[in-house]
Amino acid sequence: MKKLLFIVNPCSGREQIRRGLLEILNIFTAAGFDVRVHVTQSQGDARKTVEKEGRRASVIVCSGGDGTLNETVTGMMKLEKKPLLGYIPAGSTNDFASSLKIPKKMSEAAKSIVAGQPYPIDIGKFGDDRYFIYIAAFGAFTEVSYLTPQDKKNLLGHQAYMLEGVKSLASLKSYRFRIECEEMTLEDDFVFGMVTNTVSVGGFKGLVNQSVALNDGLFEVLLIKMPKTPLDLSNIVNYMFLKEEPNDYVYKFKTRRIRFLSETPVDWVLDGEFGGSRTEVTAENLEQRLKILRKAEKQQDS
Question: Domain 2-122+290-297 class?
């Protein structure tokens, strides 16, 4: 019998996993899995559990938000033999699940795991010891994701991020960076930067170039320089959300590997969770390093 390790974060989203857990377990058991359930107790628990018990599983499924998925994948990256990954989204935004067209309804997501096919995905390596699934970011708005209280995320969803983000507009802070990759070298003051492997960020698709493949070995990079006037800031926002003419303050490009060097420590966010404060870090794309179970495109269309 195939062994399935099921990592559950009971606090993600509106705690809907509590209502659907028995149905999900029934779906897995009926499909022939021997299920081991672990309910996370604290931050880092998912990663530790996967590292300790993951080698005995053929499939590891996690249910929670992007942070739970990040911890699960980080634990899997420590395993010599990588099990298949399954994801039942239960967070506030679930950008990566949207990118993969994983159903929002939890029971349907579980069915797509047992009936799905392995789909290779890229994983981002951040420095020597961290990983990210879909985004590594710094600067304006990034602190919103890990400072927004969980109860506010549960209540407002996407709006919570926007409400908190608006508060920071009046106090934009810039960071002096030297940024190096194969395509270019930049040195300037930046207010925001993100390295992504997703079609949406915070529920917004306009922030990312839509010619995105999750397994092509390439990141999508977005960098925003410090605006000099309120009009510059307005033009940046219009460009980002309203698709106006290209903006001199915004860089968008693809790369496999990118290095950031800053004069002072900069806080980073990885998949919506605090990723540490660093003066130097390299983000590297690990092409097709894991396989996630999801319905094939033809199955999704049927």
Answer: alpha beta
